[in-house]
Amino acid sequence: MRDRDDFSAEVKDKLARRVGFHCSNPTCQKITSGPQIDPAKAINLGIAAHITAAAPGGPRYDANVAPEQRAAIDNGIWLCWNCSHLIDSDVLRYPANLLWQWKKDAEARALAELEGNPSGPDAPTAAKPQTLHVDPTTIYINPDNPPVAAIRELLEAVFFNAPDDLHRLCLQDKLFRPVVKQFGSNYGLDDMIDNLISYCFQYILWNDLLTMVADKNQAQFDRFAPKLQA
Ligand SMILES: [Zn+2]
Q1: Staple partner for 28: which of 23, 152, 188, 229, CB 3.0–4.6 Å?
Q2: pTM beyond 0.70, yes or no
């Protein structure tokens, strides 16, 4: 019996390729591959990290996950050497949910670049490092205890002058379109926010909600970010 459910070489290779050999940590995004002096060789500084650990006692180990799932591509995330150590040194700060989100976003960035659309919201060429803006995907919301009061305050601050904008934004986003059906014709901003919050509870869409709000008003989002993170 194996002690560790390690990834196959094929899975590691696929993980790296699916993110264009970039680190999947949104605040890092470092390239992990390059040439060696020997023209036949390449440097690899990337690691196929386990989202839930490969062996009991490891970071984020989940006994309910079957061994073959643990070694499956879904359980891996491509990171640079540094970030792979970072995520294992503080598992409360870097829980599995957050890593899955990183992975999803890193693959989306790679696809946007492939399609020649590097101007996506968090493309590597965006001016993110030069600004002090908070990336909503880096905020970890505990689904069992989301900071509802702060989220409500943020939504009120962004939309108090224009509740119709919230209605329109939800309508434009396929994740949030279903919630619009729950809005009554006489709904005020508070009623819409109530529905939106219970919808996020139901489908665990906190990060998607925050991303939508940050796109609308990054300055307000940045102002509330410390409260959301608390
Ligand atoms: Zn990294």
Answers
A1: 23
A2: no
* Ligand 1 centroid distance, CA of 102 (Å): 11
Locate all alpha helices (DSSP H) within 19-66, ordered by sequence.
none
Residue 5's CB: how many other CB atoms inside 10 A? 20
In the Cβ-directed half-sphere of 55, how many Cα atoms lie within 13 Å?
5
CB contact at 8 A, 6 and 54 = yes
End-to-end CA distance of the chain, in Å? 43
State the pLDDT at residue 139.
86
Model confidence band, residue 29 (pLDDT cutoffs 50, 70, 90): very high
- Sequence ranges of the domains in the chain: 9-130, 136-229
- Block residue for tokens 């002096």: 37
Instruction: Report pLDDT digits (tens) over 208-221.
Output: 999 999 999 988 89
Please report how many Cα atoms fall inside a 13 Å half-sphere around the Cα of residue 163, on the Cβ side. Answer: 13
How far apart CA 96 and CA 75 sit, in angstroms, is 9
Measured CA to CA in angstroms, residue 210 lies from 16, 41, 72, 147, 194 at distances of: 28, 43, 30, 12, 15
Ligand 1 center–CA 8 separation, angstroms: 22
Ligand 1 centroid to residue 226 C-alpha, Å: 23
Closest CA to 28 of 77, 61, 69, 71: 77
Residue 157 has pLDDT above 80, yes or no: yes
pLDDT class of 136 with cuts at 50, 70, 90: confident
Ligand 1 center to 52 CA (angstroms): 18
Residue 155 C-alpha to ligand 1 middle, in angstroms? 32
